[in-house]
Amino acid sequence: MKKLIPYGRQSITEKDIHAVIEVLKSDFLTQGPVGAQFCEALAQQFKAQYASVTSNATLALYIAYKALGLKKNDHVWTVPNTFVATANAALLQEAHIEFIDIDKHTYCLSINDLTQKLRQARVNNALPKIVVPVHFAGQPCDMKSIHQLSQEYGFKVVEDASHAVGATYRNSPIGHCEFSDITIFSFHPVKIITTGEGGALLTNNLELKTQIDKLISHGITKAHADFVNEDAPPWFYEQQELSLNARLTDIQSALGLSQLKTLDQNISRRKKIAQNYRKELGNLPLRFQEAEEFQSSSWHLFVVTLEDKNLRLPLYNHLRELGVLSNVHYIPVFLQPYYKKIGYDQLQCPNSLNYYQSCLSLPMYHGLTDEEQDYVIKCVREFFDVKV
Ligand SMILES: *Cc1c(COP(=O)(O)O)cnc(C)c1O
């Protein structure tokens, strides 16, 4: 029986394992020095002033929105071509979610659609409090344009960079937050680097950082300088906000810190795999994600769209029979039964729907060997040679 090739998976080295074992033998399994080191390393690597870590990216999004002051009935705008968590984190705070369409060629947030919907929203007095661009498949959105619009229309920007650890935009790493208030990362095993489960928030704003850290730990602060009580005894801590426990353990931080050290190799390997796919599949009736020169992807996913969308399911099945597990990213969020139930329809985002009907993610991860990729390519080519 042939080994299955998934669309994405983690790579764990002996060094990673050793780093985790060291923490298991130490005094602190959580809230110890390694968590703090991981935060510092993230801030340094991605050129942000501050980084905080969370138990997953869903909670990072939830906390990002809350730290920016999201209130009941506020509006949050994002794309439908994302994982449900981006939108759910706003609905959970009783905010309204609205969907902006993606661009036909980049599969990321369409600046045209955003601009049009902002103009309309100004007339209707329904401007968003927060806009959440998603760097889909690892490709940065056009952040400069989004930032300009945020100045004009007065909204906050949270980058959902779950896919984009290691991506760059205009020669700066994603996470740098030059064009946003907060950037969030995911460290789920299918993403670029992993902590098992895990996430991070990066920002350049000290006030936001303080708020984020409180929200990660029950709304509690232990910094006496920030206390409301003036004569607090030495054992005191203050709960100043309502929140929950979203902390990452030191065990997980050790894994993340170790994984971060080989990020550059990880990204170059993914780039090479992407170039090879483009070269070898270029003459088939498929399209690839397009980018401007200043947008450099981390290649979390390698997405193709089929010119004939009726061939997507047959290709998916053909690959699966041969042990290649492709996937579909994403089912537009508004098609989910929950979203339908609360009244969302699909008319507003034709590009997202069109894209969804023809897209397929081929195996992409830095542990994918040349032989495995050759096999995937052979299977895809064979499908078009024989069946079409
Ligand atoms: C994976 C992912 C999330 C959620 O990340 P978790 O760490 O699994 O909670 C959110 N947004 C996007 C775009 C993702 O891909």
How does this model look, in words?
39% of the residues lie in helices and 14% in strands. With 388 residues, it is α/β, with parallel strands linked by helices. Strands 1-9-8-5-4-2-3 form a seven-stranded mixed β-sheet, with helices on both faces. The chain has a three-stranded antiparallel β-sheet with strand order 7-6-13, with no helix packed on it. The protein has a three-stranded antiparallel β-sheet with strand order 12-14-15. Helix 6 (143-153) links the parallel strand 4 and strand 5 (156-160). It is globular and about 80 Å long. Pyridoxal-5'-phosphate binds next to helix 3 and helix 4.
Low-confidence stretches: none
Q: Helix-strand pattern, N to C?
A: HHEHEHEHEHEEEEEHEEHHEEEHHHEH
Radius of gyration, whole Å: 22 Å
Bound molecules: pyridoxal-5'-phosphate
Q: Profile the largest sheet.
A: 7 strands, mixed
State the helix count. Answer: 13
Q: Quick check: average pLDDT?
A: 96
The termini sit apart by 27 Å
Please tally the β strands and state the result. 15
Main sheet: strand order: 1-9-8-5-4-2-3
How much of the sequence lies in strands comes to 5-15%
**Gross morphology:** globular
- Give the helix level as a range of percent: 25-40%
Structural category is: alpha/beta
